[in-house]
Design a protein that fits this description.
756 residues, alpha+beta, Alpha-Beta Plaits, 7-stranded mixed sheet, 4-stranded antiparallel sheet, 27 helices
Length: 756
């Protein structure tokens, strides 16, 4: 059984595209083989910076022969029908067809079409060119003289060679022949660009892998990663240091080299005065190098680099050259750091350095979103929200407001301009440097968290207030302009923001009803949208001018103060505001279901609790869901649910005739006849009152236990009592009793939403 070896050799493939390219090649080729009934035993794809390789083992020598019976017209059919049948079946004359009889349809012609299977080699020669031409690179290019053709070959970088052989263990390998715009397949590959540039002729995969290893190419990307990691750790250990591991960087570097050689470089200890995160970002982003730490956990003034060749001087010149570049980059970083700590010449009168950056941000008019105004306006909204949230979570109001005001100030610093991934973190460093309260400084960093399901959450009250304000403003603002997630599209990461709110609230055990903060967030956005519209029309300015305010900065300050005051005022009872808040609460319900489902909770129990009116306290919802789940895990709970469903079904059926709410009045105790209905009425009165009382003091476990007492009388009622009695008064009274049972259970959860 032959094996396929396919290599597509090109100029440098970007590291970020390599893994996906290997997966795509394997998927496309193997799917095409299966579609041709060429079943195989296994397939493996490899990738280096200059090649994508596929090895498929256990292919058949040829496609299996096919046999098809094609039914034709009836015997005696018109000549035109006969000719059409002969043409479609590939027959020369009608006598070559057989005749079959059908008891109902009579005699008709049948053609037996037998086709020998194509050889695997021929099938591959047809399959592979189409796959290469349509390969799904995120970005591709055309090159050379062939680029002007109507159908130029496109590849991520110029394609230089195609190796494609089909070989059995003991026979000579055959080239699978095909041509792509003058580039013909063959049995030649190339080794390392510098250390083994000569062409290499190969027959099968074993020859290929061995030849590349000798030609200084490590074909397997995972093996390259393992070599880099092991050698880096060993080299660091020999110097009494420890490697700071970085999986993303390791994956990237393994995609930059074919023959990894690990070296160590260094820079002057004086640069260690820069924040360690800046040093790491500089070395990582600019040089693709790994940083090291000493035995005390402090950053060392040495780093690990990975070369793509074995140098005659054991890499001394390469390490020295990288050291020079790193020193230059760190000099730039130190300049950014010192510049950001200093005053801005044009804004010295605006306070501390971060306050000066805020003034610059406002002066530049940096837009947050075209419909939502500037970053400066957004900062004011977040500050107002932080003031409202702070008392509810035990945070100092003024410190929370200060942290919210400074949270985005580092966006216009030199360092964040160079390394955007350091936003927030640099805000903390700069806030501490200018003497802010530590809680304020840490909140400027932590307000972005959590940025994913595995990221840590803020736990300090000031940080919580600002993080919630930031995320609620984002959600309220984009909901106000009707920019909501749709399907898989979520360009503003609103799902992540909602999940962040949920995690912060639940994992910190916060009692925080969401309706008020959401109203405030949406109201703030509505105000900014409205004032922007009015300001564009000039109506605000004109109105103030008529009141005697002169044009100029003073007037702009009055408009700003008026907007801020309005933003801090309580949200009015506005229809659009109510509608937007209701929609956003429903979105939180969906996100909470996802969060709890990932934790093992049942989504139907979440629905049962959310169906009750006024459910906007996330922590209380979770407590109810957990208590409801524990009740339904017991036999009493399961049987009570069955009794509830029977009662609800009876009521639903009768309400179709008598109208909704027909049985909402209390039953008449004097009309209770049978012991079972009297017992149910007595237990229901006590259990219903107890459940409601315990729900009122948020003892949901106690409320569920109170409901569990209904199990036995409900079972007995349905065993002994006929609800739809002939006596209409008796029937009405029993239906009202069941209505009371339904209402008592709905005080705890909407049991109609419970599945199973």
């Amino acid at each position: 059984m032959p094996d396929l070896l396919l290599e597509l050799f090109s100029e440098e493939i970007p590291a970020r595209m390599q893994r996906q390219a290997a997966d795509d090649l394997k998927r496309l080729v193997t799917n095409a083989l299966v579609d041709r009934n060429l079943l195989y035993e296994g397939a493996q794809a490899f990738v280096t910076p200059r090649r994508v390789t596929l090895h498929v083992v256990g292919l058949p020598a040829a496609q299996p022969a096919s046999r098809e019976e094609r039914k034709g017209p009836r015997v005696g059919a018109p000549e035109a029908a006969i000719r059409g049948f002969l043409k479609s079946a590939g027959l020369a004359r009608i006598e070559d067809a057989s005749i079959e009889k059908d008891p109902k349809k009579g005699e008709f012609y049948v053609a037996i079409i037998e086709k020998p299977g194509s050889s695997t080699k021929d099938a591959l020669a047809e399959i592979l060119p189409a796959i290469v031409r349509a390969f799904p690179w995120p970005k591709s290019m055309r090159w050379g003289a062939a680029s002007v053709r109507p159908d130029p070959l496109r590849w991520v970088r110029p394609l230089r060679g195609i190796l494609c052989t089909l070989a059995t263990p003991h026979d000579v390998a055959e080239i699978v022949p095909f041509d792509l715009v003058g580039l013909a397949s063959g049995d030649v590959t190339w080794g390392h660009r510098f250390m083994a540039p000569a062409p290499i002729t190969v027959r099968r995969y074993d020859d290929y892998a061995d030849a590349l290893q000798k030609a200084k190419v490590v074909l397997d990307a995972d093996r390259r990663k393992a070599i880099i990691l092991a050698d880096a750790k060993s080299l660091a250990f020999a110097q009494g240091l420890e490697l700071i591991e970085d999986e993303r960087l390791l994956e990237e570097v393994a995609g930059l080299v074919e023959w990894p050689v690990v070296l160590m470089g260094e820079f002057e200890p004086a640069f260690l005065d820069i924040p360690p995160e800046v040093i790491r970002a500089t070395i990582r982003a600019n040089q693709k190098c790994f940083v090291l730490k000493d035995a005390d956990g402090n950053l060392a003034n040495k780093f690990i680099l990975v070369s793509n060749l074995v140098a005659s001087d054991d890499g001394a010149a390469i390490a020295a050259g990288n050291g020079r570049v790193v020193r230059a980059r760190l000099s730039d970083a130190r300049h950014f750091w010192l510049t950001d700590l200093a005053d801005l010449p044009d804004y010295k009168d605006k306070g501390k350095p971060l306050d000066q950056r805020l003034a610059k941000l406002e002066a530049l008019g940096i837009v947050f979103h075209e419909k939502l105004g500037t970053q400066a306006e957004r900062i004011e909204r977040i500050e107002s929200l932080a003031r409202e949230l702070a008392p509810k979570i035990g945070a100092d109001v003024e410190l929370a407001a200060r942290a919210a005001k400074l949270a985005k100030a580092d966006l216009v610093t030199e360092m964040v301009g160079e390394f955007p991934e350091l936003q927030g973190l640099m805000g903390r460093y700069y806030a501490l440097a200018q003497g802010e309260e530590p809680s304020v400084a840490h909140a400027t960093e932590e307000h972005y968290k959590p940025q994913g399901p595995n990221d840590r959450i803020p736990t300090a009250p000031i940080s919580i207030a600002v993080a919630l304000a930031d995320k609620l403003d984002t959600l309220g603002s984009f909901w106000t302009i009707d920019e909501k997630p749709t399907g898989s599209k979520d360009p503003y990461a609103l799902r992540r923001a909602a999940l962040g709110v949920i995690r912060i609230v639940l994992e910190n055990g916060l009692r925080l009803p969401l309706t008020g903060p959401l109203n405030a967030a949406i109201w703030g956005a509505l105000l900014d949208i409205e004032f922007a519209r009015e300001d564009q029309a000039g109506s605000v300015v004109q109105s103030l001018e008529r009141r005697g305010f002169p044009k100029g900065p003073e007037l702009e300050e009055v408009v700003g103060a008026f907007t801020r005051a309005a933003r801090r005022s309580p949200a009015p009872d506005d229809a659009r505001l109510r509608e937007t808040t209701t929609s956003l609460l429903a979105f939180f319900a969906d996100r909470l279901k996802v969060y709890l489902r990932d934790k093992g909770a049942r989504h139907d129990l979440i629905d049962a609790v959310f169906a009750l009116p006024g459910q906007d306290d996330l922590l209380m919802i979770v407590w109810r869901v957990e208590a409801l789940g524990r009740l339904l895990d017991t036999e009493d709970g399961k049987n009570l649910l069955a009794g509830y469903r029977r009662a609800a079904n009876i009521l639903r059926a009768e309400e179709r005739h008598d109208g909704a709410g027909a049985f909402n009045r209390a039953h008449d105790p004097a009309r209770l006849v049978l012991p079972a209905e009297k017992d149910l009425a007595d237990v229901l009165a006590a259990a219903g009152a107890a459940a409601r009382e315990r729900v009122g003091r948020e003892d949901f476990e106690g409320a569920m236990r109170a409901l569990a007492a209904l199990r036995a009388p409900v079972d007995a009622f349905f065993l002994d009592v006929t609800v739809n009695a002939d006596d209409l008064a008796l029937r009405l009274n029993r239906l009202r009793l069941l209505g009371e049972l339904r209402d008592a259970m709905h005080a705890v959860a909407d049991f109609s939403r419970v599945a199973g």
